[in-house]
Amino acid sequence: MNKTEVSKLLTVASAIDHRTIDPAIVNAWHMVVGDVPFDAAERALTAHRRNRPGVYLEPGHIIEQWRIERAKERELRGPHPAPPLGQRWAVDCIEQDYELGAGPSAVTDVSL
User: Fold this and answer.
1) Domain count across the chain
2) Which of 32, 67, 34 is nearest to 48 (CA)?
3) pLDDT of amino acid 111
4) Cα 104 from Cα 21, distance rounded (Å)
5) What is the pLDDT of residues 65-90, one digit of tens each?
6) Boundaries of domain holding 73
7) Cystine design at 106: which of 21, 76, 95, 99 (Cβ 3.0–4.6 Å)?
8) Domain of life, per the record (predicted)?
């Protein structure tokens, strides 16, 4: 996502929460969410607003929703073996995704 798209995303957010947008804010957000595709960021904003009413949107919320979306896509894409009883592969993908900055210290065994 480029800075123009970050500004568009923040404009939509400000229509809901009346936040102030200036170049420094756009630059700061871009540093955090610049690698997120714009369409994914729009979906993340929508999901955040629907699922967390009243919670002020921060860049980490966009990243969190994007990770969840990517994990769901991976799980649907397969093929992969069925996860062990009581575990979910999507959670493992979110926690151990080296592309998204998580590392080996992440949770690897999630019981349901």
Assistant:
1) 1
2) 67
3) 45
4) 36
5) 999 998 888 877 766 676 677 666 66
6) 3-100
7) 95
8) Bacteria
